Give the backbone structure.
Amino acid sequence: MKRLIYILSIFFLPLTSLLAQEKDDRPNFIFILTDDQPYGYMGVTGNPVVQTPNLDKLADEGTLFTNSHITSPICMPSRVSILLSQYERKHGVNFNAGTAVAEEAWQNSYPMQLRKAGYFTAYVGKNHSPVGKNGYKSGILEKSFDYWYAGHRHLGFYPKERHKIFSDAEEDTQIEVVGEAALDALDNNEFKLEKAIKFLDKRPNDQPFLLNICFNLPHGAGTESMQMRESDSEIYKSLYRDQEIPLAENYIAKKDIQNSKIPLDIHHVEDRQTIYDYVNEPESTKERLIRQYQAMTGIDQLVGKLRDKLKEMKVDKNTIIVFTSDHGLLMGQFGLGGKALLYEYCTHVPMIIMDPRLPKRKRIKRSDALVQSIDIAPTLLAKAGVSVPASFQGKDLSQLLTEETEIRKYVFTENLWSTQFGNPRCEAVQDKEWKYIRYYKNENFSASKRIKYTKDLGLNVNRALYGMTDKEISIYRSYAEEPLAGEKAVYEELYHLDKDPSESTNLANSSEYQLKLEEMRKVWAKQIRLARDKGQPLVERFTNESSAEMEKKQANLPK
């Protein structure tokens, strides 16, 4: 018997050693996602005010992508695009469109792929990606990670006041609560946060890990609710308040707007969400910038603490860190506020990838290659040695970390969120020199009128605005399909980004640039088909109420 055991041990020893070696070689991942952070909100990206020494150092030790773009300039579809590596036109999940990621599609997300490959996975912070027939209430996401300490939708600056799951955190402010959970998830001692949904008592030492850290800052829902409480860090009370805060060069106060940037019958600016009305006045815009910069410095300090923790754990040399934002934000440029448009202020975001395993002499510190948020998932899987699902539309960025090369010639972006708040349906294609944007008719009922009528009728305003009927869901689907079937643009923009980076001069109607306009139209026709791809989106119908209930409640609203 002893001889048999000995023989078996000799047989399995090489296999065991091989597996152990494989586990040791696989990198850990920390993915950090901010909310509404434009490209220029860090020192390393040229901001003269905001202090981000840890992010600047991360960029210096890794690769800063200076030409990084999202796919959709609104939270939910952009975040789903990152998880599934698909354009919104492919995955079919839009903000307030009554749709959620189908379970089948979720299985191909990069967190699920890494978990299946043996990674310990954790998610902390904000989730804005509904999954399954019951969306946020399905419980699918909570079961998809080994450690879950997150709230669905907005967190606010004091997340304990919005989500019960955060109630046992020692900290009170969002960044610090999220940071507390991130450090807890990393610790290989017993987990401290009892409210965290977890399947183990502690993180196993012999497993590589994926830690997703998703903020709801510097988003307006977070900065608007900052109260400078006595218990808040001094960062959130006094930092930047004694400094001159410059506005954008093309900032226009509401009272000074003479011509709308986009025709008013296409972009219903008076229906804009009131959360962005601070851009109407210079002083309120500066106050919001101060809060956004404070949030960025808070996030920066957490990045420093995370890196210290990695060193303490002796895994810093094998942990890849990725940092980016779900989209940017307009802060009064052209008199506009918010997102859901395709100007650089909304689509151009920072992206940093730091792989400490790469030799310093080979690292590319700055890459101007055109990259997109859908490229993150295939990059992580490639680094982990995991096969990339055929459903992915992004590209592996690994080569760009060590070589000055290109992976695509054009970037495609889109906004399909046009059922509320006056946002126009639009699509854009761009290369490093030119950008082309096309808009479609906007016949949606005024959000401001809907709010007024619902109040007059005694109905719930949020349900009237955000509860989707089947008819409205079908409208959203038509938004995705009609341009492919020949729908005509009603307005076009053409910008020479190389000479006009602020997109101030529309050249679409200039006789001098008609050949370039026609060229970019052809590029758009090809890129939109690539973005749509084949097959139907794998989505589930999702609202808090049935379609029949919503139809009944909205029956009395003016059409």
In short: The CA atoms of residues 469 and 547 lie 5 Å apart. The chain has 17 helices and 19 strands.
